[in-house]
Amino acid sequence: MRKYTTIEWEKSLVWLIPPLLRKKVHYDWLHTLLSPLKRIYKETLYKMQHTGQVIYLEKVLNETFNQSRSYNPNYSTREKKQNLLIYIGETIKPTAQHIYLHREYEEDGKIAPKVFLNNEIQSSEDFKPLYLIHQNDHKIKYADFRVFIPKSIHYIKSKFYDIVDFYKLAGKTYELIDYEYPTNIANANLFKRPTPTPIEFSKSAQNISEVKQIILE
Q1: Do residues 13 and 27 touch, judged by C-beta distance below 8 A?
Q2: 174 burial level (CB within 10 Å; 0-12, 13-18, 19+)
Q3: Contact 144/90 with Cβ under 8 angstroms?
Q4: Mind giving me the DSSP string for 15-64?
Q5: pTM
Q6: pLDDT tens-place string over residues 17-73
């Protein structure tokens, strides 16, 4: 079934040319003039079909800067690393945990919380290290998401920023992080033979039984 967004440019061009002027010279000339319009139409349609969602943004980045690899939206993060794909991950933001205020224990009759030393925390399984930060540390702006790029990809950062800025949601910030994955493991996963499904096993078993029946006959 033909999509409504598909335009048959050559056929439409022939239909729009008057019958008296349907010559090869006129057709070639108009077809040349139509080439920029076809390119703009494809680029605009491509942008309209992709949004700032993670699945679409990863697809656009891989199709633009990592064309040698096939992008599969069903891959997990580990599989994306193994296939050396560009993927988007969550950023690391410290979470604030309220402990207590000094004025809460200035009154008489209240006991301050127990203070655990560093060696006591490490030797105990019930307590995890708690790092104290200053209130000014929360003024630091952290990125909303991170874009992981394989080191094997050579790209122009300005073009990469332009594409991400075009598709991402307004007000969202991001950072680029280069990563590398062992080449031998990545190549082994690419040339790994897929495991046959139970349906394929049943078909092969059925073919073998048919061959045996023919030999016996």
Answers
A1: yes
A2: middle
A3: no
A4: HHS-GGG--HHHHHHHHHHHHHHHHHHHHHHHHHT--SSHHHHHHHHHHH
A5: 0.60
A6: 888 888 889 889 988 999 999 999 989 988 988 998 999 999 999 999 998 889 998
